[in-house]
TrEMBL record:
One of its GO terms (cellular component) is nucleus. This is E3 ubiquitin-protein transferase RMND5B isoform X1. SMART domains: CRA (SM00757), CTLH (SM00668), LisH (SM00667). Keywords: Cytoplasm, Metal-binding, Transferase, Zinc, Zinc-finger. PROSITE patterns: CTLH, LISH, ZF_RING_GID. A zinc finger (RING-Gid-type) spans 338-379. The keyword DNA repair does not apply. Core component of the CTLH E3 ubiquitin-protein ligase complex that selectively accepts ubiquitin from UBE2H and mediates ubiquitination and subsequent proteasomal degradation of the transcription factor HBP1. MAEA and RMND5A are both required for catalytic activity of the CTLH E3 ubiquitin-protein ligase complex. Catalytic activity of the complex is required for normal cell proliferation. The CTLH E3 ubiquitin-protein ligase complex is not required for the degradation of enzymes involved in gluconeogenesis, such as FBP1. It holds the Pfam family CTLH. GO terms for molecular function: ubiquitin protein ligase activity; zinc ion binding. Residues 338-379 form the RING-Gid-type domain. It comes from Erinaceus europaeus (Western European hedgehog). One of its GO terms (biological process) is proteasome-mediated ubiquitin-dependent protein catabolic process. InterPro entries: CRA_dom (IPR013144), CTLH/CRA (IPR024964), CTLH_C (IPR006595), Fyv10_fam (IPR045098), LisH (IPR006594), RMD5B_dRING (IPR037681), ZF_RING_GID (IPR044063), Znf-RING_euk (IPR027370).
Length: 393
């Protein structure tokens, strides 16, 4: 954090200088314009009277030219001064942050073949779509001649259209979507539709007593959710009592809280993504966040390896020299480590369930076969190795 603060200090200096320069620049130019304007009027006046240019006026004119030149020169040199402050920011970044990260990444990563480059571009495009930056994504597709078919784009376009409406506090498109996906949302245990109806109801309540009838009529939408959200529905019905008094002065004022809108955007994104089979965060942002956690640890390890002069320890193949804890957020799949070989199972060496129920990796199973028979290393049940079944977590 200290590093960030010291870079920020330099950035603040530049911004401050820039602001003062801008004001000073405008003021000097304004003065100059005024001065030139006056002179022009005087010259025009002299021309009108048909008198030749007086010595005083020509002196003033040459003074004016000098003044213009001086001002421009001064402004240019002040501008140059800002350049040096900007470059100080760059130096502060170099000084405070480690820029040399190539050492902890396999060189092969940067040898981008066409296929890798396409994968990277695709990841960026997906991220842009996910962030709702549709035009930027389109532009990148065009410039990189990446062919993204409509089926891929469609869910993102729909999500963004609905989210944009929600940000404008327009519930219509989201409600329409939730109603048409009701069954699948219920299977996901989602309360999205209920929350949308609730928000609509609250909005009617905010309209005061004249909206009471409309609100009561709307309450029939809660009927399918009566069992699951009984308590919340009771609260909303209770609030009707205070409608005449004004909800904002009642014990139900929390219903009008603006945080419900932020919450509904979050619920919609989460549930819609899971229904459409999309991840809430793009693979690119997950990779980036993981990298931010992992890089400092890797840099430290690299320094230690170099210090102890055992560079052969980490050959940069496909594995890291140590396990790096990325936190629960980054746990996506269950992993199975073979209890016999103490190795994580993989596609080429998958976990196999024996008929006795014990699970070992296929490599371990192959090693344990003796005379066409296999004896489970846990419960010494003898069995046919071919009876083992691959299991998938
Ligand atoms: Zn067994």
């Amino acid at each position: 954090m200290e590093q960030c603060a010291s870079v920020e200090r330099e950035v603040d200096k530049v911004l401050q200088k820039f602001l003062t320069y801008g004001q000073h620049c405008e003021q000097s130019l304004e003065e100059l314009l005024h001065y030139v304007g006056q002179l022009r009027a005087e010259l025009a006046n002299a021309a009108l009277q048909g008198t030749p240019l007086s010595a005083t006026l020509s002196l003033v004119m040459s003074q004016c030219c000098r003044k213009i030149k001086d001002t421009v020169q001064k402004l240019a040199s002040d501008h140059k001064d800002i350049h040096s402050s900007v470059s100080r920011v760059g130096k502060a970044i170099d000084r405070n942050f480690d820029s040399e990260i190539c050492g902890v990444v396999s060189d092969a990563v940067w040898d981008s073949g066409e296929k890798q480059q396409q994968i990277l571009q695709m990841a960026i495009v997906e991220h842009l779509y996910q962030q709702g930056m549709l035009s930027v994504a389109e532009e990148l597709c065009q410039e990189s001649t990446l062919n993204v078919d409509l089926d891929f784009k469609q869910p993102f376009l729909e999500l963004n259209r609905i989210l944009e409406a929600l940000h404008e506090q327009d519930l219509g498109p989201a409600l329409e979507w939730a109603v048409s996906h009701r069954q699948r949302l219920l299977e996901l245990n989602s309360s999205l539709e209920f929350k949308l109806h609730r928000l609509h109801f609250i909005r009617l309540l905010a309209g005061g007593p004249e909206k009471q009838l409309e609100a009561l009529n709307y309450a029939r939408h809660f009927q399918p959710f009566a069992r699951l959200h009984q308590r919340e529905i009771q609260v909303m019905m209770g609030s009707l009592v205070y409608l005449r008094l004004g909800l904002e002065k009642s014990p139900y004022c929390h219903l009008l809280d603006n945080s419900h809108w932020a919450e509904i955007c979050e619920t919609f994104t989460r549930d819609a993504c899971s229904l459409l089979g999309l991840s809430v965060e793009s693979p690119l942002s997950v990779s980036f966040a993981s990298g931010c956690v992992a890089l400092p640890v890797l840099m430290n390890i690299k320094a230690v390896i170099e210090q102890r002069q055992c560079t052969g320890v980490w050959s940069h193949k496909d594995e890291l020299p140590i396990e790096i804890e990325l936190g629960m957020k980054c746990w996506y799949h269950s992993v199975f480590a073979c209890p016999i070989l103490r190795q994580q199972t993989s596609d080429s060496n998958p976990p196999i369930k024996l008929i006795c129920g014990h699970v070992i990796s296929r490599d371990a199973l192959n090693k344990l076969i003796n005379g066409g028979k296999l004896k489970c290393p846990y419960c010494p049940m003898e069995q046919n190795p071919a009876d083992g079944k691959r299991i998938i977590f």
